[in-house]
Each structure stands twice: as C-alpha cells, then as structure tokens.
Amino acid sequence: MLSKNARLWLGLIAITSLLSLASSCSKGGDEANDNTGPTEGAGKTYTAKNNEGTISGVVSYNGTAPENKKIDTSADSACTSKSPDLKTEEWVVADGKIANAYVYIKDGTLADGSKIGDYGKWPNMPASATLDQNGCHYHPHVLGVVVNEPISITNSDPTQHNVHFTPKNNPDWNQGQANGAPALVHKLARAEVLVPVKCNQHPWMKAYIAVSKHPFFAITEKDGSYSLKGVPPGKYTVVAWHEGGANGTEQKMDVTVAASGAAKADFTFGGTAMVQPSSWPMLEAITFPTLHNH
Amino acid sequence: MSKGVHRFAVFVACATFFLIIAGANVTSHDAGLATSDWPLSNGQVFPKMVGNLFWEHGHRMVATAVGMLTIVLAFYLQFREPRTWVKRLGWAALGAVVAQGLLGGLTVKLNLPLIVSATHATLAQLFFLITVSLAVFTSKRWIESEPLEMVEGPPVRALCVFSLAMILTQLVLGATLRHSATWDQDLPTPLLVAHICGAVVVTLVLSTTIASVVLRFRSETYLTRPAAIAACLLVVQLGLGLAAYMTRRTSPNDPQPLTPMVAVTVAHVACGALVFAATIVLTLRVFRMVRAKQAEYRLAHA
C-alpha cells in the first residue's frame, strides 16, 4: 500500500502529465497550416462536356428589413478609430435586395443519372480563399469554399485578433493572430453549411464560412444577384441561406438546367418574420482604470 | 489563537470572492479563449489589455494573486496555528487552488470542453468554501464557543448538510448551463429546466433549515445571523436568477454581450457563491454548538 506522500506525488505527477498531454494535443496550438479529418474531396472526377449551363437569380427581401444594430467597439480603441460606426451585418439590404445570402446546389441528379454528390473533383474548383480582419470585422462576412480549400486569414488591423472557427462537422479551431503577423492558413475537410467564425477578443465580430463538396455556390452581391456557372444539365435542389433569425433561414427551389441552358431561381426572404430586436438598449460599456489603454 | 491568522484568512476569502467575480466576467463576456495560449497570454506576461483579453488576462492575474495569498496562508497556518487539522485544511486549500489553475490552463488548451470548464467553475466555488471555512475556524468565537441547550425538533445538523448538498448540486447545474452555450446561442432547455427545478429545491430545503435554526435558537445570534444572511441572499439570488434568465434568453439577438446581461449573470454567480458561503458558515457553527448537547441527550436517554 502506498504511503500518503507517495500518493500525493503520484497525484501531482498525474495532473502534470495530463496537462502536458493536453498541450501536445492542443487544437489551439501554433500550427499555421491545419489539415484535420478525412478528406471529402474523394469521389469521381467530372469531365466538362461543353454543355454545362448556369443557374442565376436574385435574392430579395419583402418588406422593411430590420435595422442592423450598432456595435460598441470602445473595448479596443484600435477598433473604434478604424470603425467608429460599426454595425452588425445581418441585414445588408438595398432596394429590396439582400447581400450575403449563400446560394448553393444542395443535391441533384445529372442528366446521365449520376448524383452531384458522387463527384469530388470538378473542373472549376476554386484554388484558395481569403478572410481578412479589417476594421475589427471580417471581410467577407459570408465566404464560400470547397472542402480542403486553403483559407488564408489575414489581420489588417493594428490590434490582436483571435480567430475561432466553431463548426459542427469539422474540428474546432482557435488561433491568435497579432497585427502584422503572417497569414494563417486553415482548411475545412468536411462539407458544412455554415461554419460560424468569431473573434474571442472582439465578441461582435462574426462571419460564416460555407464548405461545399462542389463549386456550385455563390454569395449574393449588394444587388442581390448570384450566378452558378458550369452546372451540368440535370435537376437540382437549389438552396438560399441567410443568417437572419436565431439560426439562419433557408429557402429551397427545384431547378432544371437544360444543356447549355440558363435556369433562373429567385428567392425572397422577409415578410412578417425575422424581426428580433436587441434585448436591451445599448448602454455604455463598463470601464476600469488599467495600466494600458483599454 | 492568532488574530493575524484570522484576519488574513478573511482577506483570502474576500480575495477569492473577487476572483469568482473575475471568472464569471470571463464567461459572460465569452472571453475564455481571448488568448489561445497558457500560462502566458499571447506570448506575454503582461499583454496589452484590450478587448476581451482584459477580462481573460485580468482573471489570470487575480488568480495568480489569490494563489500567492493561499501559499502565504498555508505557511502562516503551518507556523502559527496549533490545530493540526486546520493546518491540513490550509494545505488542502493550496492544493485546490493549484488544481484550479491547472484546470484553467487545460480548458484553454482544449478549447473550452464543457466538462473541464464546468469542473473549473465548480472547483472555484469549493475553493471559496474552503477559504471561508478557514476564516470560520480561525475566528475567536469559534474557538471560544460554548454548546447550546438541546432543543427538540428536526435534526438541524442534517438539514444544514442537506442544504449544502443541494446548493452544490445547483451550482454544478448552473456551471454546466453557463458553459454549455455562449452568449450568442440559446441555452439548452433540459439543463435550464433542471437548474430552475434545482432553484425550487434549494429554496425549500434552505428555507426549512433557516426556519429551523431561527425558531429553535432565536436568542443565539451566532447561529441566527448567518441564517438570516442566507435567507436574504436566497431571496436576492432568486430575483437575480429570473433577471439572468430574461437577459440571457434574448442575448442571441444582441450584437455583442451587453452590459445588463453581463452584470446580471455575473451577479447571479457571485450571489450563488455567497449563498453557499453563508450556508457553510451556518453549518459549521451549528456543528460546533449543537453537537455536545445532542451527544449528552442521547446518553441520557439511552
């Protein structure tokens, strides 16, 4: 039987070992290039047949869009100086058209009977994407990538940021990034609609990254327009996702693309739903005297 | 008995309460991962305290200070306290604060897994309990107290222990609830319902305990005072709980953690710690004063 002292030392060693193990297994480590999980890029290769078509349309808002909420950036003077009138970007609506809606082909069958999900490689796969932190908000607000596409994350602000991906289908990823630090590169190995991205340093910063197995997705422009090019002839379910509401909302439409045809799919959000005011009026942030500027 | 030891123990308990407030601010501001490294913050001992790093690193600094104070207290007790079991409790407090620090580092390195974060929050409350107990044990009144006349009625010691157990269970539920969703996510309904039910149970059990103490020992302020304080804190805590629920329910619609939600949720955590502390003080004093006469009563009626 071990003595009390021996048990105490064993306990301390166990705790220290656990912490060391946790450090070595840490997901918030200093790797700049992270490629975790089995790839979903596997699958057949689609060869272009020169009869591909397009799906395009406009995403509109019916009614008066909710106002975006003012953000208090006083917690970091670098943010206030660069973005003095920062507001949330939930509703970027101009002339009844919604920007930042994610439109994509959810599933479908090609004219030859194969499923779109059977394919892992397409001729027009994007090579890389960039997510920039500028003015203490993310550019773009909604980003679409394909699985394992390198996402270059840059910090264009004179302050420290902390990028935190909080996916459901992919591993959690959290990384600090000082101003002037080299770009971080991260890949998401599994399809997911959508991965919320936040900054634990500046809690108002929010972005969404949609991960797709194929390149048929688009983010609507300020005029609400989008275009999916190079779509093989077939029947598809097209989905438009928008973040408005607690967990985002989706709309679906069945679309048929003829050989070399141009299909149209317009979506409309809004109406009586999605008016969710902030819980309290904005009050002055609590400030404490500190040694450094706060 | 050293007055200096007692005063220092009280000071450490107060500092620990301040640390609980600092820790609660980290959670309410969603600042737990404001820096992804540990024990340094962004590779520095003193980083620029902006944004949420103010809360996270501030919390680490307060925790370090409390750790240092606990080391001093453990040695102070070792050299100035005659009772061996109190010295051991001092070392147990040191062990607890070291474990708490390691848990804090672990939860950051693992990106805040629920079980580690909730354990960190719970151990914080238990460590606070130890520091409050040390303050009680080193007090002049504790050392010089006389047992009370036996009064018939429900076993008040058992009621006190049961109250403590229920409060601890409620604290665990609360800690798990708080760490299961950030400010911009809805709280999980099953945990929320469990925590609300826990509040009902704690209210019933603690109220019964308080009433039992106050009615049976009404002239003994050494017991009735912590009972009355626990009663007041319980009422405040129920109100804060309701306010915390109302602000937290709508926080997913907010652009960022807003001051009212943060203030109310932090106050709810802090008041919960005070309810726990008042109840442990009451329990310890009941055990101190009621024990001898109960033993005599049993012997007399054997």
Features:
heterodimer, A: 294 residues, mainly beta, disordered C terminus, B: 302 residues, mainly alpha, 9 helices
Concise description?
The complex is a heterodimer of chains A (294) and B (302). Chain A is mainly beta and 294 residues long.
Structure characterization notes:
The complex is a heterodimer of chains A (294) and B (302). Chain A has 294 residues and is mainly β. Chain A has one domain (27-248, 263-270): Cupredoxins -  blue copper proteins (Immunoglobulin-like, Sandwich), CATH 2.60.40. Helix content of chain A is 9%, strand content 38%. Chain A is built from two helices and 22 strands. In chain A, β15 (192-199) and β16 form a beta hairpin. Chain A is globular and about 75 Å long. Residues 20-39 and 272-294 of chain A have low confidence and may be disordered. With 302 residues, chain B is mostly helical. Chain B has two domains: 1-144, no CATH class; 149-302. Chain B has nine helices and no strands. In chain B, α1 (3-28) packs antiparallel against α4 (114-137). The longest helix of chain B is centred in the last third of the chain and has 42 residues, at 259-300. Chain B is globular and about 60 Å long. Chain B starts with a helix and ends with a helix. The model of chain B has no long low-confidence stretch (mean pLDDT 93). At the A-B interface, α1, α2 and β13 of A face α3, α8 and α9 of B.
